[in-house]
């Protein structure tokens, strides 16, 4: 029971009064940061480095980790209430969270998000504690070829995300891939689709697109429909309570997505955003009522929320056991640890067990804090929907604009936001689904980069994708998930 | 985040005033009259950002200046967006940015209208060096082994943490050329950062990796999965890298600096440049700086404005010849 002893040791550190205060401050600040689009966990953590500099390394990491998973926890709120994702990892939550809010079940959606986040976070801490050192091998086993195959598997979700017309879904996905191409090409340094503008050299930020085609398009759509429409969020929060059958319904999705999310998080190139999409599309595929996903299905909220929090914890595996950051946020955390004199890496468990086990233990406490902090707040936060529509729409508008401007301080990005708002409105009016576009935008970039990297390493030999067992397995699963539904359909007809 | 930073700065301002300023001892000298906008031309977390935040913090903690250095991130275009912004602000003595080789490489690749000659170099502050790594189980024991293998099979992949034509690639091309290889024949695989490249090395997806020595310190030492074959420094580095031989020790006459410095607005007034030069030199002497510097694996490499300008000109010449060998020059 080595892990148990270590965990007890970790709790000894995490339960010091000062560290309990740091966990609380971290998750509290994180929740608020997550709710506001624009001020993401990366900027928040970078701002905190000077504060943590003089702290004990374990306390510093406890505080900063709290901000990180707190932000992922809190990010669901604006996705559900306003259709405006606060952080990239919670985009998938809005697919069913916002329709639930529209049906007058905002309270329930927020409660499910909180429970699912709590369980996803806690399950993955257990994994982190038990298997972190073993998993470092899994994390490095994913090279360019394997990432390509994983992204292909992710993209097959386009089929399940385009509910009415597969053709329209595929068109939206192609547009998403095209948007992901804009900017300097990583492999050759060539500018692509930048129209000579330096504003486009770094490509188009994912959140600009997400806020545009979800939140802004929603505002435009409601304006078009006029004031008396019933399309807008109904002025009711609804009950927070889940019935027993509802609990039974989400238990499966939450536990599957927690595990899936954790392993996605462990891969340095994947992370919370991809984890949440994979969780969502997996549940949609296996659910009997898959066709109600996107219309306010509680499983569609539970799955991505469990997955993104689990992935957030999972991303600590490569950070702490390899010293390799898997995302922008963990890169800032790594920088902060180095400044505090801790070298994350293979030797960290032996050299600084206080930091590792202290943080692991603090995550258990932090997740409980988050649940206790968020549940009583739901009725108050959800009151935002009781506002008169004119006020609510302006609020969403301001929210989006501050969010986008706060990321880059670029007026150009605000114009882009407007452009994507109009695009999103057009897509809604003509029945094009938005989710495939977003999914393709996220995956397209990594897919292209990984494919070309893999081919460059193999000297242009395409067999590299088949020779590697992980890559082959993922591609086979992808092929099966595309063809099985077709075969089933044909059998049913026959 | 910009606004919240500024707000923080305003709050901290009275404190900095109270601490007092050693640099304003002589009244006739120029001193800043408001907060200095200290720009990191990238997102939080990278090398520029770390330099800007560390310098700002040390200057404030040690009470070296009577005005605050406000760290501001202006990401985009590999620095080009920030450079375009600073270039418009001719003569402003309260604005400067952190710079490193991309200030020269990005314009040479044709991705920025402005290069170092459009700005006022203030001081070079630190340097890092390139390091070449292989897997701990690899058969390559020295740079000679690696380059022999590369000669035989140019398809062997060498990963790096930056785009083609950027720092890691130039550094690899330079050492390969010095070792007698055709620089353009190296199969350089760009990854999204040094960490990404090292993960791929541990997983056996590439043969070798070139990245910043500072970034690799955490990965080396006892129990490490990686082995360092050489550093691009003129002499051995200290700390965890003391065992790593230089290129020159292995008979390859090549060095490469990943320098970092501070560059000001176009035509920044001379007296302002003199003030900052002196301030940064003074900062390098403080305990707070030395502690942070050691933890981050940096090496002091101070040059004043004049020496730094001359150094940048040399760098431009050297890089443009490497880039043209690689066929990546686009001026």
What does this molecule look like?
The complex is a heterodimer of chains A (494) and B (331). Chain A is built from 22 helices and two strands. Chain A is mostly helical and 494 residues long. Chain A has one domain. Chain A is globular, with a radius of gyration of 22 Å. Chain B contains eleven helices and ten strands. In chain B, strands 1, 2, 3, 4, 5, 6, 7, 8, 9 and 10 form a ten-stranded mixed β-sheet that branches. Chains A and B meet through helix 3, helix 6, helix 15 and helix 20 of A and helix 1, helix 2, helix 3, strand 6 and helix 7 of B.
List descriptors.
heterodimer, A: 494 residues, mainly alpha, two-stranded antiparallel sheet, B: 331 residues, alpha/beta, D-Maltodextrin-Binding Protein, domain 2, 2 domains, 10 strands, globular, disordered N terminus
Question: How would you name the CATH homologous superfamily of the largest domain in chain B?
Answer: Bordetella uptake gene, domain 1
Task: Describe the oligomeric state of these chains in a short phrase.
Answer: heterodimer
Helix content of chain A: over 70%
Query: H/E series of chain A, N to C?
Result: HHHHHHHHHEEHHHHHHHHHHHHH
Instruction: Give the number of helices of chain A.
Output: 22
Biggest chain-to-chain interface with counts: A-B, 57 and 62 residues
């Amino acid at each position: 029971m080595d892990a148990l002893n270590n965990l007890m040791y970790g709790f000894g550190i995490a339960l010091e009064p000062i560290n309990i205060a740091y966990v609380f401050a971290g998750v509290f600040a994180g929740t608020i940061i997550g709710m506001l689009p624009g001020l993401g966990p990366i900027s928040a953590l970078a701002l905190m480095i000077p504060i943590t500099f003089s702290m004990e390394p374990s306390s510093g990491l406890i505080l900063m980790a709290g901000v990180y998973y707190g932000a992922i926890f809190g990010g669901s709120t604006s996705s559900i209430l306003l259709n405006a994702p606060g952080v990239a990892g919670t985009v998938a939550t809005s697919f069913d969270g916002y329709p639930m809010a529209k049906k007058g079940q905002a309270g329930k959606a927020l409660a499910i998000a909180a429970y699912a986040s709590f369980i996803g976070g806690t399950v993955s801490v257990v994994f982190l504690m038990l298997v972190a050192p073993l998993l470092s091998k899994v994390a490095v086993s994913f090279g360019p070829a394997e990432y390509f195959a994983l992204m292909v598997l992710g993209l097959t979700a386009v089929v399940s995300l385009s509910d009415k017309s597969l053709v329209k879904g595929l068109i939206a996905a192609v547009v998403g891939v095209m948007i992901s191409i804009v900017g300097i090409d990583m492999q050759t340094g060539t500018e692509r689709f930048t129209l000579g503008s330096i504003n486009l050299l770094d490509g188009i930020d994912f959140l600009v697109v997400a806020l545009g085609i979800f939140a802004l398009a929603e505002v435009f759509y409601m304006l078009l429909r006029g004031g008396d429409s019933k399309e807008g969020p109904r002025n009711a929060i609804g009950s927070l309570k889940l019935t027993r059958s509802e609990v039974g319904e989400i238990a499966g999705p939450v536990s599957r997505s927690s595990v899936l999310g954790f392993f996605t998080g462990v891969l340095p190139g994947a992370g919370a955003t991809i984890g949440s999409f994979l969780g969502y599309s997996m549940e949609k595929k296996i659910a009997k009522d898959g066709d109600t996903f996107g219309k306010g299905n509680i499983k569609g909220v539970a799955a991505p929320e469990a997955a993104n929090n689990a992935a957030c914890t999972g991303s600590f595996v490569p950070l702490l056991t390899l010293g390799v950051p898997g995302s922008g946020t963990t890169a800032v955390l790594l920088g902060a640890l180095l400044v505090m004199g801790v070298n994350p890496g293979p030797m960290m468990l032996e050299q600084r067990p206080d930091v590792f086990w202290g943080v692991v233990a603090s995550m258990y406490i932090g997740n409980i804090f988050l649940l206790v902090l968020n549940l009583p707040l739901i009725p108050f936060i959800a009151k935002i929907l009781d506002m008169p529509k004119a006020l609510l729409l302006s609020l969403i508008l301001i929210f989006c604009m501050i969010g986008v401007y706060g990321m880059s301080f670029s007026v150009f990005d605000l114009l882009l936001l407007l452009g994507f708002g109009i695009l999103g409105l057009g897509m809604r009016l003509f029945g094009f689904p938005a989710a495939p576009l977003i999914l393709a935008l996220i995956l397209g970039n990594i897919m292209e980069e990984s494919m070309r990297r893999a081919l460059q390493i193999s000297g242009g030999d395409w067999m590299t994708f088949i020779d590697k067992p992980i890559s082959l397995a993922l591609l086979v699963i992808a092929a099966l998930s595309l063809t099985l539904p077709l075969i089933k359909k044909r059998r049913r007809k026959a | 985040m910009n606004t919240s930073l500024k707000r923080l700065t305003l709050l901290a301002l009275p404190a900095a005033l109270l601490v007092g300023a050693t640099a304003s001892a002589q009244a006739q000298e120029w001193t800043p009259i408001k907060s200095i906008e200290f720009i990191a031309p990238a997102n939080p977390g990278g090398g520029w950002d770390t330099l800007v935040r560390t310098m700002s913090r040390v200057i404030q903690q040690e009470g070296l200046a009577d005005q605050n250095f406000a760290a501001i991130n202006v990401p985009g275009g590999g620095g080009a967006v920030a450079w375009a912004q600073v270039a418009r602000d001719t003569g402003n003595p309260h604005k400067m940015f952190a710079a490193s080789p991309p200030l020269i490489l990005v314009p040479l690749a044709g991705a920025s209208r402005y290069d170092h000659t459009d700005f006022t170099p203030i001081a070079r502050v630190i340097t890092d060096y390139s390091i070449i790594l292989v897997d701990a189980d690899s058969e390559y024991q020295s740079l000679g082994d690696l380059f022999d293998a590369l000669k035989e099979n140019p398809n062997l992949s060498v990963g790096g943490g930056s785009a083609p034509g950027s720092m890691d690639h130039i550094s690899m091309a330079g050492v390969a050329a010095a070792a007698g290889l055709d620089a353009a024949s190296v199969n350089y695989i760009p990854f999204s950062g040094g960490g990404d490249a090292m993960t791929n090395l541990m997983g056996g997806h590439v043969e070798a990796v070139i990245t910043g020595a500072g970034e690799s310190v955490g990965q080396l030492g006892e129990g490490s999965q990686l082995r360092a074959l050489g550093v691009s420094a003129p002499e051995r580095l200290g700390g965890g890298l003391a065992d790593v031989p230089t290129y020159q020790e292995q008979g390859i006459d090549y060095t490469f600096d990943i320098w970092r410095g501070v560059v000001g607005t176009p035509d920044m007034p001379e007296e302002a440049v003199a003030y900052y030069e002196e301030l940064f030199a003074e900062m390098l002497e403080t305990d707070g700086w030395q502690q942070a510097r050691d933890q981050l694996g940096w090496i002091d490499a101070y040059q004043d404005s004049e020496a730094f300008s001359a150094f940048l000109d040399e760098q431009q010449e050297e890089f443009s010849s490497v880039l043209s060998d690689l066929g990546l020059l686009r001026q």
